[in-house]
Amino acid sequence: MNPVETGATWAIWLIVSPLAAALIAFLLPRVAAGIALVNAVFMTTAALALLDQVTEAPRCFALGGWGAPLGIDLYADTLSGVLLVVTSVVFLATLLYSRSYLARTAIGPLFWPISLFLHAALNALFLSADAFNLYVTLELLSLSAVALVALADETRAVAAALRYLLASIVASLAYLLGVALLYHATGVLDLAALAERVTWTPTTWAALGLMTAGLALKGALFPVHFWLPGAHSYAPSPVSALLSALVVKAPFYVLLRLWYAPFVGAPEVVANLLGLLGAVAIVWGSVQALRQERLKLLIAYSTVAQIGYLFLLFPLAQTRSALQGVTVFILGHALAKAAMFLAAGNIYQYLGHDRIRDLRRVARELPVTLAAFAVGGVCIMGLPPSGNFIGKWLLIEAAFEQGDWGWAVIIVAGGLLSAAYVFRVLGHAFTLGKKRAEGTGAPATMAWTAFGLALLALMLGLAAAPLIDIIGSPVAVAVAIAAVPAQ
Amino acid sequence: MSWQAALPLLVLGSSLLPGLVIFALPERSRTLRTTLNLGGAVVKLALVVWMIWQSGQGVNYELRAALLPGLDLVLRGSELGLFFVGLSALLWLVTTIYAVGYLEDSPNRSRFFGFFSLCVTATAGAALAGNLITFLAFYEMLTLATYPLVVHRGTAAARHAGRVYLAYTIGGGGLVTLGTLWLYSITGTLEFQPGGVVAAFVDSEARALSAIFVVLAAGIGVKAALVPLHSWLPTAMVAPAPVSALLHAVAVVKVGAFGLMRLVFSIYGVDVATGLGLAQGLAVVAAITIIYGSLRALSQRNLKRLLAYSTVSQLAFIALGISIGGAVAATGGIVHLVHQGLMKITLFFAAGNLAETLGVHEIRDMRGVGRRMPWSMAAFTLCAFGMIGTPPMAGFVSKWYLGVGAVDSDASWVVWLLAASSILNAAYFLPIIRAIWFEAAPEQWPKERTFGRAETSLMLLLPTLFTAAVALAVGLFASTPYSPLEWARLIAARQYAP
Q1: Whole-prediction pTM value?
Q2: Which end of chain B has fewer surrounding CB within 10 Å, N or C?
Q3: Between chains, do B174 and A401 touch, taking CB under 8 Å as contact?
Q4: Is B102 within the bounds of a domain?
C-alpha cells in the first residue's frame, strides 16, 4: 500500500513553480523570458527527480497537508513520471526557441505567462487521480491553450481559437456530466475508489459514454477532430508545437486512466469502436495531410493521424505490450511533432509563407531546419530506431498476439502514408530554383532546438529497453491506481 | 570492452563519423572534406581487412545491445557478412575517389558526401547485422540515406526518380517490417543462424511460414530489383554516375541480394526453404527476372538505362544461385555478389567518363569513341564481355558454377536459361562494342572537355581501370586461395553441411 505523504515534494513543486513563474512573468514582462527558461530547467530536474522517486512504487502526495476528500491528493506513478519528463523537455526546447521567434513577430509578452500556466495545468493533470480534479485541470489546460492560439495576430487564428474553445466547452460539459453521474452512483471521485465501487448499471453506461465522447472530442479523435487542423496550424509555431506535442495527449491520458481503473470492465464493443475510429483517423488524417497545400496544415493533419494510433490501445489493451507501446509512442510523437512544428516555424519566418509548392532551395538555405523536419518526419513514419518505431512494434506485437491482424496492417499502412506526405515536402525542399532576394537564414537557436528535439525522438528507441522497464506492465499500472488507498 | 571487440562498431564509425563531420563543413573546405572522405574509406578498408584476418584466426566478433526486452540489436562478424562488407569497403574507396573527381565543381558537395557516407555505413551495418531486426534498421537507413543522392541534381526528373524510388523502397520496408514481426510472433527469435531458426515450427506453422517468406522476399526483393518490383532502378539512373555505382554495385541492390541470402540461409535454412517449395518459387521469379531484364535492355537507347536493366537481369543470378539447391550453385550465386559488383561498377564508371568528358549519354553517340577514350572503353569492353560470360572474366566463373550446380541438382532448365541470358547479353552489348571500336567517330562530340594529355581526369580513369583489372583478376585467379570464389565456396559449404 502507498501511504499518503505530506510536505514539500517534487510533485508539488511541479505545479507551484510554473504558477509562481507565470505570476512573475505577468507582472514583470521584461524578465518573463528569463523566468520562463529558469522554470523550464527547474521543471526538467524536478520531473526527473520525481520519476526517480516513483520508479520503485507509485506515490501519493497530499497538497497542503489535507488528505482527500477535503484536500487534494496528488498521485504519481511511472506513467505520469515519464510524461512529466517529456513535457518539461518539450517546454524547455520550445521556450528556448520562442525567445528568438517572438523577437521576429508582433506577438506580445503575454505568451510567457500563458505558456507557463499551460505547463502548470499539464503537470497538474498528469499528477491527478481524481475524476473531478482531472476535469479542473483539463479545463485550465483548454483555456490556456485557446488563449495561446488567439495570440497569433491574424483573424483566421482567432476564428480557429473560437472553434477550439467551443469544442472544448462542449467536451468539458460532457465529461463533467459523466463525472456527476459517477459521483451520484458511487459517492466517490477518486479513481481508485471508483474502481472498487463501479457496477455496470445504466448510469455507469451513460457516464462511460459521456466521458469517453467528451475526451474523444477534446483529444481530436476522428470524426470529431474538426477543430484541430485550424487551431494547430494558425497558432504561432511554438504554440503549435506545444499543442500538438503535449496538449492533445492530455485527454487521451485521462481516458487511459479511466480505462485502466473505473472502466476496466468496459465491454469489448466500446474498445473496438474506439480502435476502429483510431484506424479511420490514421488513414483519413494521412490522406488529408497528403492533400494539404500548406506545411503547417500538413503537420496538423499528421497529428490527427497519429492520435489514431493511440486509440488502437483500447482493443489491444489486454496484451502486456500494448500500453508500453502506446506510452513510448506518445513520448516519441511529442518530441518528433514538436521538432516538426518548430522547423515549420523557421521555414515560415524565412519564406514569409509555408506553401509546400514553393519550398524550393530550402534544403540548401535552411539545412539544419530541414534536417530537423526530415528526422522528425522519419520518426513519424515509424522507422527504426525512433521511439515511434518501438511504439508501433509493440502495438503490432500485441495485435499478432491477440490474432487481430487488421490492426497490424493499419499500423504499417499508416507508416507508408506518412512517408508519402513527409517526402512530398522534402521533394519540394530539395528542388533547385531561382534564388530569392530577401530572407536571412533562421537563427541558430531556432534551428538547433528543433533539430535537438528531432534527434531525441530518433534516439528514443535506443533507450527503449530501460524505458519499458521503468514504465512496467499495464497490469502494474492498473493495480497501482487501485492500490492507492481511498480516503 | 577492448577495441578489438568493438571492431564492428569501428567499421561503422569509420564512415559514420566522417559523414557527420562532412555535413557540417562549408562548401569551400574541399581539402578537409576530401581528406575525411578518403581517410574514412581507407580506415574502413583497413579495419575490415583486419577483421577478416582475425576472423580467419578464429576470433568471434559479436556486439549486443538490448532494444526491447528479449530483443537485441546485434552486430556479428559472420563469414557471409564479412564477405559482403569486404566488397563494399573496397568498392566504396574506389567510388569515393571517383566521386571526388566527378563532382569537382558541382554544388552541395558537403551534403552529397555526407549522405554518401551514411549510405555506406548503412550497408556495412546490414552486412554485419546479426539478426533480422538489426538488418531491418539498416535496411531502412539505407533507403533514407540514398534518397537525397537520387534527387541530388534537384531537377524535375531527379525528383520524379526520387519519388519512384521511395514509393518502392518504403513500401518494401513496410513489408519487411510486417514480415519480421509476424515471424517474431511465431518463432520468438530473429537471430541469423546457419541452418535457420524456423525448423522447429515447420510442422505446426507451415502455411504461416510460407506466407511470411513471401512477404519478406517481396519486401527485400524490391531492393534486389526482382521483377515486377524493379522499375525504380532504371528510373533512378538520372542520378550522378557515382550514385549509380553506389546503387548498382556497392550498396542498395547488393543489400537486397544479400538480404535474400540471409532469408534463405540464415532465417529459413536451405532445407526448410526447399522443403516448403519456397526456394523453388524464388528460383522461378529469378529466372523470369533474368530474361525480362535482358529483353528490356535490348530496346534501350540510353546507355545508363541499358546498364540498369542489365543490373536487374544480372542480380537475379544471385537469387537464382541460392534458390536452386546444392552447394555448387550457391557458390555461383554468392560469388556473383562480388563479381557482378566489380563488373557493373566498371561499366558505370566508364559510362560516367563518357558523360563527363564528351557529353555522351545515348548509345548512338558512342560511335568511334574507342579512339578518343581507349582506356575507359577497354575497361568497358572487358566487363561487357564479363557480363556476357566469356572466359576468363569473373562473370564466366559465376555462370559456370551456376550451370554445374544446376545440373548437379537436376535443374537442367537453368543451363538453357544461362545460355539464353548469354545470347541476350551479347545481343545488346556486342553492337555497342562494335560501334565503339569499328565505326568512325563524328566530327564533334556533344559536349567535349579536355584534360591535358590523358583521355579524361585521372580521378575518373584510375578507379575505372582498377575495378576492371580486379574483375579480370578474380576471374583469372578464381581458384587461388583467398579469392572470392574460394570464400564463397566455404560459405556455401557451411549452408549445406549435413
Answers
A1: 0.91
A2: C
A3: no
A4: no
